[in-house]
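Schema walk-through. Below, the input block comes first and the output block second. Nothing else is stored per chain. Lengths vary across the set, and this one has 149 residues.
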Amino acid sequence: MDQTRPILDQLNIVSGNVEASIAFYRRLGVKIPDERVWRTPTGPHHVSAITDEAMTLDLDSTAFAKTWNTGWRGRDDLPGRVVVGFGVSSREEVDRLYGEMTAAGYRGLQPPYDAFWGARYAMIEDPDGLAVGLMSPASDEHRAPPPPV
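--- output ---
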């Protein structure tokens, strides 16, 4: 393995409303202890969440993104968007968490469905308009050919 290669280990979101983002990601299950929120008299300015998992980076075309996120169909402003991906423990957990987050008032972009790659998948929107994916482990029994792009 090439030890000089950079390792992606951080996703930094510049938020327009840090308090709303803290509430959103905490409700989603991200560990954000109060002592990891840097506040000044003008409000919170930096948050360092506790993560125990590895991160991946995927690159998808806008045409492909429209096949797995119905909330993006018909839009031309997709280049440069970010999708924050969260893996969950089961197919049922995708449905439960999507329901909890949309019931709390967060916008659903893609209701839960069985994605062609074998996972249960859904997308919601965070307070700054970023797409947040919820994905179960993939299973061979749920795999299908990819859609035409």
